[in-house]
Amino acid sequence: MSNTLVGLVYATGSGMLRRIIVPDDDEQLNDPSHVGSGETILKVSSASAMIGKNITAAAESDPSARVSMVDSAIAAVSNATGKDATPVPHAIVDKTGMVVRMVLMDPAIDAVPEGFLAIANREAGVGWTMKDGILQGPPSVQIKQDEEAEAASK
Fold first, then answer.
1. pLDDT truncated to tens, each residue of the chain (154 aa)?
2. How far is the C-alpha of 145 from the C-alpha of 136, rounded, in Å?
3. Residue 127 CB burial class (10 angstroms; 0-12, 13-18, ≥19)
4. DSSP 85
5. What is the pTM of this model?
6. For position 148, what pLDDT does the model report?
7. Dihedral of CA 39/44/49/50: which sign?
8. d(CA 107, CA 119)
9. Whether 5 contacts 26, CB under 8 Å
10. Which CA distances in Å does 52 have to 1, 20, 81?
11. Beta carbons of 103 and 92 less than 8 angstroms apart
12. What is the DSSP string of 106-152?
């Protein structure tokens, strides 16, 4: 029994990374419960994926140069599928227009509860509101966005 592989579960259609499985034993990656409908598992060498250990000589002195486990997994899935495996944040909006949570999801295979709406958005956060189909932050965030838009237009 040994651990030489890592399982990277991704959405088959979009290629989006969904889970990273680091087993105690490689055989555990053969358990079908790891993969749901619309998902595929990519088994990669834990050494080649450099999961959690991707530290080059430059990174020894500069911790910001280190690649995270998630970044390594995204790169491995992207290389294998030819698709961008970066998970996409979605704002979950209730029927009053309030963002009640943020989730990483693939709308092709993840269900949204009835009465809620999922909007792909990297900027939104809990407490934002949707008005006329547009997500808006709290006043302090909206002011900053307005200032940035004005500066960009000059």
1. 677 898 999 999 999 999 988 888 999 999 999 999 999 999 998 765 554 444 344 455 555 555 677 888 899 999 999 999 999 999 999 999 999 999 999 999 999 999 999 999 989 999 999 998 889 988 665 555 556 666 666 6
2. 10
3. exposed
4. -
5. 0.71
6. 62
7. positive
8. 9
9. yes
10. 21, 12, 22
11. yes
12. -TTT----TT-EEEE-SS--TT-EEETTEEE--HHHHHHHHHHHHHH
Spatial distance between the Cα atoms of 93 and 126, rounded to a whole number of angstroms: 9
Q: Which amino acid is at 137?
A: G
Q: Write out the two tokens for 80.
A: 């294998």
Which amino acid type is present at position 74? I
Nearest to 6 by CA among 25, 60, 39: 25
Q: Enumerate residues 6+ apart whose C-beta is below 8 A from 92.
A: 99, 100, 101, 102, 103, 112, 116, 117, 118
What is the residue type of 49?
A
Q: How many CB atoms lie within 10 A of CB 94?
A: 14
